[in-house]
Amino acid sequence: MKTTDKQTGRTGNCAGHDGGEHADIIIVGGGPVGALAALRFAAAGRRVLLVEARAKDAPLTDARALALSWHSRTALAAAGAWPDDLPASVIDTVHVSQQGAFGRTRLDCADLKLPHLGVVVDYPALTLAINAQLEQAGVQVWWQTRVEAVNSLGCYASVKTSGAHGDISLTARLVVLAEGGALADSLPGIKRLVHDYQQCAVLAEVTTEQPPAGIAYERFSKQGPFALLPHGDHYMLVWTRTPADAKALQEAADEQVMAELQQAFGERQGKVLAIGPRASFPLALRQVNRVSSGRVVLIGNAAQTMHPVAAQGLNLGLRDALGLADALDGISDPGDAAALAVYAASRKLDSHAVVGFTHGLIKLFDGDSTLVSALRGAGMSALDSVPPLRRAFARHLVFGL
């Protein structure tokens, strides 16, 4: 007969693990996706341990500005991780166009009857807000701790850690991987599709003659697609370029980069007045064939990383966290195979649709022939001129599928 330990949630016939610390759920990776999952599980009464490689007080120097859908912002606020004074810039309108050809699409928050389509927030600011909420919610976090290996057994999963707490084996009914994805490569049944775009994303803050006023731009230029995201009184530029172009943009004089951007963008916001230092990182698509292996489940970047076009990667990861919490709500054993199968099925359409959409955009806008350009323009114009289709498209971008 099974007996249940009320402190750990373990059934009697699952005893005999390696010892050491035990939790209902161990989450590996303390970024926004892992932290949101931890907050949701803790609010549901689960005993959660969050394991994060960086030190709690490590300087946050990440240059990224994160574009979050209004749905993502609402989810973080509901978990207490979005304080009222968090500095963020709203997106009310998204203007999509291509250089040197007709056709454009304009998405507006009024189409969905939402206050805003989304927000842009600096990664360090959001991270500090999330860390504060983790502490306030009483979530146990092991900072400066690396997970060296993950193993799934019949009744529990184990992780081997090293770092501030020493070399320790931990056990849990469920392990959630929300890190970069390297740990999943050793799990049975997990295979990862990798496509190197042979491109880099170039990031820089841009000042234009006219302030953003809630308008974000997605522009498919001849050199590569770029986004201009509201960032206070400025814009954050995310420009997809070849590695050689990215290196040249980083090393070029500001005036040269400003002139190139002005030519590609036009004067919708007036003159480009200034551009800040450029950062660059390589782009690749990585997606697993399945999101669970035994009592280990993958969310966020552990499950998929994608091209930044349309700014869908983090939003998809946050929906992973929400979907996992919902799928396990009321389930006594969070590592139950049937419950994890429900989660996997519930996320399959959204994940494959978003990955396919972003990958398809890059392929579609990669050609530069007159015919391809005309077809792209016709598609954007059709989307813009059919309100139900435009609203459905905007809804999918904000809420997923």
UniProtKB/TrEMBL annotation:
Biological process (GO), any one: ubiquinone biosynthetic process
Keyword Oxidoreductase carried by entry: yes
Cofactor: FAD
Alphabetized GO MF terms: FAD binding; monooxygenase activity; oxidoreductase activity, acting on paired donors, with incorporation or reduction of molecular oxygen
Pfam families linked: FAD_binding_3
Domain of life of the organism encoding this protein: Bacteria
Keywords: FAD, Flavoprotein, Monooxygenase, Oxidoreductase
Listed pathway(s): Cofactor biosynthesis; ubiquinone biosynthesis
UniProt family annotation: Belongs to the UbiH/COQ6 family.
NCBIfam families documented for this protein: Ubi-OHases (TIGR01988)
Name recorded for this polypeptide: 2-octaprenyl-6-methoxyphenyl hydroxylase
Upper lineage: Bacteria, Pseudomonadati, Pseudomonadota, Betaproteobacteria, Neisseriales
